[in-house]
Amino acid sequence: MLGNNIPTVKLGIIAVSRDCFPIALSTQRRKNIVAAYGEGLYECPITVENELDMLKAVDDVIAAGCNALVVFLGNFGPETPETEIAQRFDGPCMFVAAAEGDGDMIDGRGDAYCGMLNCSYNLGMRHLNAYIPEYPVGTAEEVADMIREFVPVARAIIGVKNLKIITFGPRPQDFFACNAPIKGLYEIGVEIEENSELDLLVSYKEHAGDPRIPAVCAEMAAEMGEGSYYPELNERMAQFELTLLDWAEAHKGSKQYVAFADKCWPAFPSQFGFEPCYVNSRLVSRGIPVSCEVDIYGVLSEYIGMCVSGDAVTLLDINNSVPKYIYDEDIAGKYDYKLTDTFMGFHCGNTPECKLCSDRAVKYQLIQHRLLEPQDSEPDFTRGTLEGDIAASPITFYRLQCDSEGVLRSYIAQGEVLDVATRSFGGIGVFAIPEMGRFYRHVLVQKRYPHHGAVAFSHVGKYLYEVFKFLGVEDIAYNQPKSLPYPTENPFA
Questions:
Q1: How many Å apart are CA 348 and CA 362, to the nearest integer?
Q2: β-strands 361-364, 342-347: how paired?
Protein backbone atom coordinates (compact mmCIF):
# COMPACT_ATOMS: atom_id res chain seq x y z
CA MET A 1 0.00 0.00 0.00
CA LEU A 2 2.71 2.48 1.00
CA GLY A 3 4.79 2.13 -2.16
CA ASN A 4 8.57 2.28 -2.31
CA ASN A 5 9.10 5.28 0.00
CA ILE A 6 9.39 2.99 3.03
CA PRO A 7 12.47 0.75 3.51
CA THR A 8 12.42 -3.02 3.20
CA VAL A 9 14.35 -4.57 6.07
CA LYS A 10 16.89 -7.24 5.08
CA LEU A 11 17.99 -8.92 8.29
CA GLY A 12 21.16 -10.83 8.96
CA ILE A 13 22.36 -12.67 12.08
CA ILE A 14 25.96 -13.02 13.26
CA ALA A 15 26.80 -15.27 16.20
CA VAL A 16 29.75 -14.46 18.44
CA SER A 17 31.74 -16.74 20.74
CA ARG A 18 34.24 -16.18 23.54
CA ASP A 19 37.29 -18.27 22.67
CA CYS A 20 37.38 -19.97 26.08
CA PHE A 21 33.83 -21.32 25.51
CA PRO A 22 32.86 -24.00 22.97
CA ILE A 23 32.24 -22.30 19.60
CA ALA A 24 29.69 -25.01 18.83
CA LEU A 25 27.37 -23.47 21.45
CA SER A 26 27.06 -20.23 19.49
CA THR A 27 27.00 -21.87 16.08
CA GLN A 28 24.27 -24.40 16.91
CA ARG A 29 22.19 -21.91 18.87
CA ARG A 30 22.37 -19.51 15.89
CA LYS A 31 21.11 -22.26 13.58
CA ASN A 32 18.24 -22.94 16.00
CA ILE A 33 17.20 -19.28 15.85
CA VAL A 34 17.26 -19.22 12.05
CA ALA A 35 15.07 -22.34 11.97
CA ALA A 36 12.64 -20.80 14.50
CA TYR A 37 12.45 -17.49 12.62
CA GLY A 38 11.82 -18.92 9.17
CA GLU A 39 12.22 -17.07 5.87
CA GLY A 40 13.82 -13.64 5.79
CA LEU A 41 16.77 -13.99 8.16
CA TYR A 42 20.19 -14.32 6.49
CA GLU A 43 22.52 -16.59 8.46
CA CYS A 44 26.14 -15.47 8.39
CA PRO A 45 28.25 -18.66 8.36
CA ILE A 46 31.13 -17.03 10.27
CA THR A 47 31.01 -17.29 14.07
CA VAL A 48 33.02 -14.35 15.42
CA GLU A 49 35.72 -15.04 18.00
CA ASN A 50 38.17 -12.24 17.17
CA GLU A 51 38.56 -9.02 15.19
CA LEU A 52 39.62 -10.75 11.96
CA ASP A 53 36.48 -12.90 12.15
CA MET A 54 34.52 -9.71 12.71
CA LEU A 55 35.85 -8.15 9.50
CA LYS A 56 34.95 -11.24 7.48
CA ALA A 57 31.49 -11.49 9.02
CA VAL A 58 30.61 -7.84 8.38
CA ASP A 59 31.82 -8.13 4.78
CA ASP A 60 29.69 -11.25 4.40
CA VAL A 61 26.40 -9.70 5.59
CA ILE A 62 27.01 -6.58 3.51
CA ALA A 63 27.60 -8.73 0.44
CA ALA A 64 24.34 -10.52 1.21
CA GLY A 65 22.50 -7.17 1.08
CA CYS A 66 21.66 -6.95 4.77
CA ASN A 67 20.69 -3.49 6.07
CA ALA A 68 19.92 -4.53 9.67
CA LEU A 69 21.74 -6.97 11.89
CA VAL A 70 21.21 -9.27 14.87
CA VAL A 71 24.36 -9.88 16.91
CA PHE A 72 23.76 -13.06 18.89
CA LEU A 73 25.72 -13.99 21.99
CA GLY A 74 25.46 -17.77 21.86
CA ASN A 75 27.84 -17.86 24.81
CA PHE A 76 29.64 -15.20 26.88
CA GLY A 77 30.90 -13.53 23.71
CA PRO A 78 34.01 -11.42 22.98
CA GLU A 79 33.10 -7.86 23.93
CA THR A 80 35.60 -6.13 21.62
CA PRO A 81 34.82 -7.74 18.23
CA GLU A 82 31.09 -8.09 18.98
CA THR A 83 30.71 -4.37 19.56
CA GLU A 84 33.02 -3.55 16.64
CA ILE A 85 30.39 -5.23 14.45
CA ALA A 86 27.99 -2.40 15.29
CA GLN A 87 30.79 0.12 14.74
CA ARG A 88 31.54 -1.10 11.22
CA PHE A 89 28.08 -2.11 10.01
CA ASP A 90 26.11 0.77 8.48
CA GLY A 91 22.68 -0.08 9.79
CA PRO A 92 20.77 -0.74 13.02
CA CYS A 93 22.06 -3.58 15.16
CA MET A 94 20.23 -5.65 17.74
CA PHE A 95 22.09 -7.46 20.53
CA VAL A 96 20.56 -10.52 22.15
CA ALA A 97 21.85 -13.43 24.21
CA ALA A 98 21.15 -17.14 24.59
CA ALA A 99 19.34 -18.56 27.57
CA GLU A 100 20.65 -21.79 29.06
CA GLY A 101 18.66 -24.97 28.67
CA ASP A 102 20.54 -27.42 26.46
CA GLY A 103 20.74 -29.91 29.36
CA ASP A 104 24.50 -29.93 29.87
CA MET A 105 25.45 -27.42 32.57
CA ILE A 106 29.19 -28.26 32.40
CA ASP A 107 30.35 -28.06 28.77
CA GLY A 108 26.99 -26.73 27.61
CA ARG A 109 26.76 -23.64 29.82
CA GLY A 110 27.38 -20.47 27.80
CA ASP A 111 27.10 -17.68 30.41
CA ALA A 112 25.62 -15.29 27.83
CA TYR A 113 23.50 -13.71 30.60
CA CYS A 114 26.78 -12.42 32.02
CA GLY A 115 28.25 -11.63 28.61
CA MET A 116 25.39 -9.26 27.77
CA LEU A 117 26.48 -7.02 30.65
CA ASN A 118 29.99 -6.70 29.21
CA CYS A 119 28.55 -6.16 25.75
CA SER A 120 26.36 -3.28 26.93
CA TYR A 121 29.26 -1.74 28.85
CA ASN A 122 31.49 -1.85 25.76
CA LEU A 123 28.76 -0.39 23.52
CA GLY A 124 28.59 2.51 25.95
CA MET A 125 32.35 3.06 25.92
CA ARG A 126 32.23 3.22 22.11
CA HIS A 127 29.20 5.56 22.17
CA LEU A 128 27.25 3.16 19.98
CA ASN A 129 23.47 2.97 19.84
CA ALA A 130 22.01 -0.50 19.63
CA TYR A 131 18.62 -2.13 20.07
CA ILE A 132 18.54 -4.33 23.17
CA PRO A 133 15.16 -5.95 23.94
CA GLU A 134 13.43 -5.49 27.29
CA TYR A 135 14.67 -8.90 28.41
CA PRO A 136 17.45 -9.72 25.95
CA VAL A 137 18.02 -13.38 26.89
CA GLY A 138 16.00 -16.25 25.47
CA THR A 139 15.58 -19.60 23.80
CA ALA A 140 15.65 -19.91 20.02
CA GLU A 141 11.89 -19.36 19.77
CA GLU A 142 11.97 -16.43 22.19
CA VAL A 143 14.88 -14.79 20.35
CA ALA A 144 13.04 -15.28 17.05
CA ASP A 145 10.09 -13.35 18.55
CA MET A 146 12.47 -10.61 19.72
CA ILE A 147 13.86 -10.31 16.18
CA ARG A 148 10.34 -9.90 14.81
CA GLU A 149 9.85 -7.04 17.29
CA PHE A 150 13.08 -5.49 15.99
CA VAL A 151 11.91 -5.33 12.37
CA PRO A 152 9.60 -2.25 12.63
CA VAL A 153 12.21 -0.46 14.74
CA ALA A 154 14.93 -1.22 12.19
CA ARG A 155 12.66 -0.10 9.35
CA ALA A 156 12.17 3.29 11.02
CA ILE A 157 15.88 3.75 11.77
CA ILE A 158 16.86 2.90 8.18
CA GLY A 159 14.16 5.23 6.86
CA VAL A 160 15.19 8.18 9.04
CA LYS A 161 18.86 7.79 8.10
CA ASN A 162 17.91 7.90 4.42
CA LEU A 163 15.22 10.59 4.53
CA LYS A 164 15.12 14.02 2.92
CA ILE A 165 12.44 16.48 4.03
CA ILE A 166 11.51 18.97 1.31
CA THR A 167 9.80 22.18 2.38
CA PHE A 168 8.02 24.96 0.54
CA GLY A 169 7.60 28.34 2.16
CA PRO A 170 8.05 29.68 5.70
CA ARG A 171 5.62 28.89 8.50
CA PRO A 172 2.40 30.96 8.44
CA GLN A 173 2.27 33.95 10.77
CA ASP A 174 1.36 33.04 14.36
CA PHE A 175 2.32 29.41 13.86
CA PHE A 176 5.71 29.70 15.49
CA ALA A 177 4.77 26.68 17.61
CA CYS A 178 5.90 24.55 14.68
CA ASN A 179 9.47 25.75 15.23
CA ALA A 180 11.98 23.57 13.47
CA PRO A 181 15.65 23.98 14.38
CA ILE A 182 17.43 21.91 11.73
CA LYS A 183 20.22 20.97 14.16
CA GLY A 184 18.05 18.13 15.45
CA LEU A 185 17.53 16.79 11.94
CA TYR A 186 21.24 16.60 11.21
CA GLU A 187 21.87 14.85 14.53
CA ILE A 188 19.73 11.88 13.48
CA GLY A 189 20.82 11.83 9.83
CA VAL A 190 17.86 13.56 8.13
CA GLU A 191 18.60 15.93 5.23
CA ILE A 192 16.47 18.98 4.50
CA GLU A 193 15.87 21.06 1.38
CA GLU A 194 14.05 24.35 1.93
CA ASN A 195 12.36 26.09 -0.98
CA SER A 196 10.18 29.11 -1.66
CA GLU A 197 6.46 28.85 -2.43
CA LEU A 198 7.39 30.52 -5.72
CA ASP A 199 9.57 27.55 -6.62
CA LEU A 200 6.55 25.31 -6.16
CA LEU A 201 4.26 27.64 -8.15
CA VAL A 202 6.71 27.78 -11.06
CA SER A 203 6.98 23.99 -11.15
CA TYR A 204 3.18 23.66 -10.90
CA LYS A 205 2.65 25.94 -13.89
CA GLU A 206 5.21 23.97 -15.88
CA HIS A 207 3.02 20.88 -15.37
CA ALA A 208 0.01 22.45 -17.09
CA GLY A 209 -1.21 20.12 -19.81
CA ASP A 210 0.84 17.19 -18.50
CA PRO A 211 -0.37 14.15 -20.46
CA ARG A 212 -0.60 12.12 -17.22
CA ILE A 213 -3.28 14.42 -15.74
CA PRO A 214 -6.37 12.63 -17.19
CA ALA A 215 -5.30 9.30 -15.70
CA VAL A 216 -4.81 10.87 -12.25
CA CYS A 217 -8.22 12.57 -12.54
CA ALA A 218 -9.85 9.24 -13.32
CA GLU A 219 -8.09 7.68 -10.34
CA MET A 220 -9.35 10.46 -8.04
CA ALA A 221 -12.92 10.07 -9.34
CA ALA A 222 -12.85 6.32 -8.80
CA GLU A 223 -11.39 6.72 -5.31
CA MET A 224 -14.02 9.21 -4.11
CA GLY A 225 -17.11 8.07 -6.04
CA GLU A 226 -19.76 10.18 -7.73
CA GLY A 227 -21.11 13.05 -5.66
CA SER A 228 -18.11 13.09 -3.30
CA TYR A 229 -15.79 15.42 -5.23
CA TYR A 230 -15.74 18.47 -7.51
CA PRO A 231 -15.15 17.20 -11.08
CA GLU A 232 -13.96 20.62 -12.30
CA LEU A 233 -11.33 20.72 -9.53
CA ASN A 234 -9.69 17.37 -10.24
CA GLU A 235 -7.49 18.58 -13.09
CA ARG A 236 -5.88 21.27 -10.92
CA MET A 237 -5.31 18.84 -8.07
CA ALA A 238 -3.94 16.16 -10.38
CA GLN A 239 -1.50 18.71 -11.80
CA PHE A 240 -0.34 19.51 -8.27
CA GLU A 241 0.04 15.85 -7.34
CA LEU A 242 2.27 15.23 -10.34
CA THR A 243 4.27 18.35 -9.48
CA LEU A 244 5.08 17.01 -6.02
CA LEU A 245 5.86 13.50 -7.23
CA ASP A 246 8.21 14.79 -9.93
CA TRP A 247 9.89 17.16 -7.46
CA ALA A 248 10.46 14.29 -5.04
CA GLU A 249 12.07 12.15 -7.70
CA ALA A 250 14.27 14.96 -9.01
CA HIS A 251 15.38 16.21 -5.57
CA LYS A 252 16.12 13.05 -3.57
CA GLY A 253 19.80 13.68 -4.07
CA SER A 254 21.85 11.35 -1.89
CA LYS A 255 18.80 10.09 0.01
CA GLN A 256 16.36 7.30 -0.86
CA TYR A 257 13.14 8.54 0.77
CA VAL A 258 11.27 11.86 0.87
CA ALA A 259 8.64 13.73 2.84
CA PHE A 260 7.15 17.20 2.28
CA ALA A 261 6.37 20.06 4.66
CA ASP A 262 4.40 22.68 2.72
CA LYS A 263 2.92 26.09 3.42
CA CYS A 264 -0.75 25.53 2.66
CA TRP A 265 -2.21 28.97 3.51
CA PRO A 266 -2.99 31.86 3.28
CA ALA A 267 -1.51 32.49 -0.20
CA PHE A 268 -1.64 28.95 -1.54
CA PRO A 269 -5.35 28.53 -2.37
CA SER A 270 -5.74 31.86 -4.18
CA GLN A 271 -2.62 31.30 -6.31
CA PHE A 272 -3.02 27.60 -7.06
CA GLY A 273 -6.82 27.66 -7.20
CA PHE A 274 -7.57 25.01 -4.54
CA GLU A 275 -6.65 23.75 -1.10
CA PRO A 276 -3.94 21.05 -1.19
CA CYS A 277 -5.40 18.81 1.53
CA TYR A 278 -6.89 16.06 -0.66
CA VAL A 279 -3.66 15.72 -2.63
CA ASN A 280 -1.73 15.55 0.64
CA SER A 281 -4.00 12.74 1.80
CA ARG A 282 -3.43 10.79 -1.41
CA LEU A 283 0.34 11.06 -1.11
CA VAL A 284 0.40 9.90 2.50
CA SER A 285 -1.61 6.84 1.42
CA ARG A 286 1.30 6.06 -0.91
CA GLY A 287 3.93 6.42 1.80
CA ILE A 288 4.89 10.06 1.13
CA PRO A 289 3.70 12.19 4.06
CA VAL A 290 2.96 15.86 3.41
CA SER A 291 2.54 18.04 6.50
CA CYS A 292 0.58 21.27 6.68
CA GLU A 293 1.90 24.65 7.84
CA VAL A 294 5.52 23.67 7.08
CA ASP A 295 5.58 21.40 10.11
CA ILE A 296 8.97 19.78 9.60
CA TYR A 297 9.03 17.69 12.77
CA GLY A 298 5.39 16.82 12.24
CA VAL A 299 6.15 15.23 8.88
CA LEU A 300 9.23 13.51 10.33
CA SER A 301 6.97 12.05 13.02
CA GLU A 302 4.50 10.91 10.38
CA TYR A 303 7.25 9.19 8.43
CA ILE A 304 8.52 7.33 11.51
CA GLY A 305 4.98 6.20 12.30
CA MET A 306 4.55 4.88 8.78
CA CYS A 307 7.73 2.86 9.10
CA VAL A 308 6.81 1.23 12.40
CA SER A 309 3.13 0.61 11.61
CA GLY A 310 3.44 -0.26 7.92
CA ASP A 311 0.26 1.76 7.38
CA ALA A 312 -0.91 5.25 6.48
CA VAL A 313 -0.86 7.89 9.22
CA THR A 314 -2.10 11.44 9.66
CA LEU A 315 -1.21 14.74 11.32
CA LEU A 316 -3.88 16.46 13.41
CA ASP A 317 -4.40 19.48 15.60
CA ILE A 318 -4.93 18.53 19.23
CA ASN A 319 -7.90 20.69 18.62
CA ASN A 320 -10.85 21.04 20.95
CA SER A 321 -12.49 19.56 23.99
CA VAL A 322 -15.51 17.31 23.58
CA PRO A 323 -18.71 19.19 24.54
CA LYS A 324 -20.36 17.79 27.64
CA TYR A 325 -23.61 17.15 25.78
CA ILE A 326 -21.81 14.85 23.31
CA TYR A 327 -20.04 13.14 26.20
CA ASP A 328 -23.32 12.64 28.08
CA GLU A 329 -25.20 11.40 25.01
CA ASP A 330 -22.62 9.17 23.33
CA ILE A 331 -19.72 8.37 25.67
CA ALA A 332 -20.81 8.19 29.32
CA GLY A 333 -21.90 4.67 30.21
CA LYS A 334 -20.75 3.30 26.84
CA TYR A 335 -17.00 3.83 27.17
CA ASP A 336 -14.84 3.77 30.28
CA TYR A 337 -13.49 7.31 29.88
CA LYS A 338 -13.86 10.54 31.84
CA LEU A 339 -14.74 13.70 29.92
CA THR A 340 -11.16 14.93 30.39
CA ASP A 341 -9.85 11.74 28.79
CA THR A 342 -11.44 12.84 25.51
CA PHE A 343 -10.69 15.49 22.91
CA MET A 344 -11.17 16.10 19.21
CA GLY A 345 -8.34 15.75 16.74
CA PHE A 346 -8.89 17.84 13.61
CA HIS A 347 -7.29 19.03 10.42
CA CYS A 348 -8.71 20.62 7.33
CA GLY A 349 -8.63 17.46 5.26
CA ASN A 350 -5.28 15.67 5.02
CA THR A 351 -6.29 12.34 6.59
CA PRO A 352 -6.27 9.46 4.07
CA GLU A 353 -9.73 8.52 2.84
CA CYS A 354 -9.20 4.93 4.00
CA LYS A 355 -9.18 6.17 7.61
CA LEU A 356 -12.45 8.13 7.35
CA CYS A 357 -16.05 7.01 7.67
CA SER A 358 -17.97 6.12 4.52
CA ASP A 359 -19.59 9.54 4.12
CA ARG A 360 -16.24 11.28 3.51
CA ALA A 361 -16.08 13.79 0.63
CA VAL A 362 -13.96 16.51 -0.92
CA LYS A 363 -15.36 19.79 0.43
CA TYR A 364 -14.22 23.36 1.13
CA GLN A 365 -12.24 24.78 4.04
CA LEU A 366 -14.78 26.69 6.11
CA ILE A 367 -12.26 28.74 8.10
CA GLN A 368 -10.28 29.76 5.01
CA HIS A 369 -13.51 30.56 3.15
CA ARG A 370 -14.37 33.04 5.92
CA LEU A 371 -10.91 34.58 5.71
CA LEU A 372 -10.08 34.62 2.02
CA GLU A 373 -13.28 34.72 -0.03
CA PRO A 374 -16.12 37.28 -0.13
CA GLN A 375 -18.76 36.86 2.53
CA ASP A 376 -21.86 34.90 1.41
CA SER A 377 -20.09 33.77 -1.79
CA GLU A 378 -19.96 30.21 -3.06
CA PRO A 379 -16.65 28.55 -2.17
CA ASP A 380 -14.16 28.61 -5.04
CA PHE A 381 -10.44 28.29 -4.42
CA THR A 382 -10.97 27.20 -0.79
CA ARG A 383 -12.26 23.85 -2.07
CA GLY A 384 -10.03 20.78 -1.93
CA THR A 385 -10.24 19.48 1.64
CA LEU A 386 -11.02 15.82 2.35
CA GLU A 387 -13.60 15.85 5.13
CA GLY A 388 -15.43 13.35 7.27
CA ASP A 389 -15.36 11.79 10.70
CA ILE A 390 -12.33 9.61 11.37
CA ALA A 391 -13.38 5.97 11.68
CA ALA A 392 -13.19 4.19 15.04
CA SER A 393 -9.78 2.63 15.53
CA PRO A 394 -7.00 2.04 18.05
CA ILE A 395 -4.47 4.86 17.73
CA THR A 396 -1.08 6.04 18.92
CA PHE A 397 -0.74 9.82 19.27
CA TYR A 398 2.91 10.86 19.24
CA ARG A 399 5.50 13.43 18.16
CA LEU A 400 9.26 13.85 17.83
CA GLN A 401 10.23 17.51 18.24
CA CYS A 402 13.37 19.63 18.44
CA ASP A 403 12.63 22.31 21.01
CA SER A 404 13.69 25.95 20.91
CA GLU A 405 16.93 25.03 22.70
CA GLY A 406 17.83 22.50 20.00
CA VAL A 407 17.08 19.43 22.14
CA LEU A 408 15.17 16.47 20.71
CA ARG A 409 12.24 15.34 22.82
CA SER A 410 9.15 13.24 22.22
CA TYR A 411 5.86 11.98 23.54
CA ILE A 412 3.79 8.84 22.96
CA ALA A 413 0.23 8.10 24.09
CA GLN A 414 -1.99 5.19 23.09
CA GLY A 415 -5.77 5.33 22.92
CA GLU A 416 -8.57 5.09 20.40
CA VAL A 417 -10.88 6.98 18.09
CA LEU A 418 -14.40 6.47 19.44
CA ASP A 419 -17.38 5.54 17.30
CA VAL A 420 -18.99 8.89 18.09
CA ALA A 421 -20.28 11.47 15.60
CA THR A 422 -18.42 14.78 15.91
CA ARG A 423 -21.24 17.01 14.53
CA SER A 424 -18.46 19.17 13.06
CA PHE A 425 -16.42 19.86 9.91
CA GLY A 426 -13.02 18.89 8.55
CA GLY A 427 -11.19 15.61 8.97
CA ILE A 428 -12.06 15.11 12.62
CA GLY A 429 -12.59 12.47 15.25
CA VAL A 430 -13.41 11.98 18.92
CA PHE A 431 -10.24 10.66 20.55
CA ALA A 432 -9.89 9.04 23.96
CA ILE A 433 -6.58 8.58 25.77
CA PRO A 434 -6.45 7.44 29.42
CA GLU A 435 -5.56 10.39 31.69
CA MET A 436 -5.46 12.75 28.71
CA GLY A 437 -6.26 15.78 30.85
CA ARG A 438 -3.17 15.32 32.99
CA PHE A 439 -1.05 14.41 29.95
CA TYR A 440 -2.29 17.55 28.16
CA ARG A 441 -1.31 19.79 31.10
CA HIS A 442 1.92 18.22 32.30
CA VAL A 443 3.42 17.09 28.98
CA LEU A 444 1.90 18.94 26.03
CA VAL A 445 1.46 22.31 27.77
CA GLN A 446 4.25 22.03 30.33
CA LYS A 447 6.89 20.99 27.80
CA ARG A 448 5.65 23.45 25.16
CA TYR A 449 4.79 21.04 22.37
CA PRO A 450 3.21 22.31 19.15
CA HIS A 451 -0.49 21.88 18.45
CA HIS A 452 0.15 19.17 15.83
CA GLY A 453 0.38 15.50 16.75
CA ALA A 454 1.01 12.53 14.48
CA VAL A 455 -1.47 9.66 14.57
CA ALA A 456 -0.78 6.01 13.79
CA PHE A 457 -3.89 3.87 13.45
CA SER A 458 -2.73 1.03 15.71
CA HIS A 459 -1.00 0.63 19.04
CA VAL A 460 2.68 1.01 18.14
CA GLY A 461 3.94 2.83 21.24
CA LYS A 462 6.46 0.12 22.13
CA TYR A 463 8.10 0.41 18.71
CA LEU A 464 8.11 4.21 18.70
CA TYR A 465 9.66 4.18 22.17
CA GLU A 466 12.52 1.99 20.95
CA VAL A 467 13.03 4.12 17.84
CA PHE A 468 13.26 7.31 19.88
CA LYS A 469 15.67 5.66 22.32
CA PHE A 470 17.83 4.46 19.43
CA LEU A 471 17.90 7.99 17.99
CA GLY A 472 19.25 9.28 21.30
CA VAL A 473 16.09 11.01 22.53
CA GLU A 474 16.33 11.17 26.32
CA ASP A 475 12.96 12.78 27.11
CA ILE A 476 10.24 10.35 25.97
CA ALA A 477 7.02 11.36 27.72
CA TYR A 478 3.85 9.29 27.95
CA ASN A 479 0.41 9.47 29.54
CA GLN A 480 1.20 8.41 33.09
CA PRO A 481 -1.41 6.61 35.20
CA LYS A 482 -2.98 8.52 38.09
CA SER A 483 -0.84 6.53 40.54
CA LEU A 484 2.30 8.04 38.99
CA PRO A 485 2.29 11.86 39.33
CA TYR A 486 4.18 14.07 36.88
CA PRO A 487 7.09 16.10 38.34
CA THR A 488 5.10 19.32 37.82
CA GLU A 489 1.77 17.93 39.10
CA ASN A 490 0.48 19.69 42.19
CA PRO A 491 0.14 17.02 44.89
CA PHE A 492 -2.46 19.14 46.72
CA ALA A 493 -4.72 19.81 43.73
A1: 11
A2: unpaired
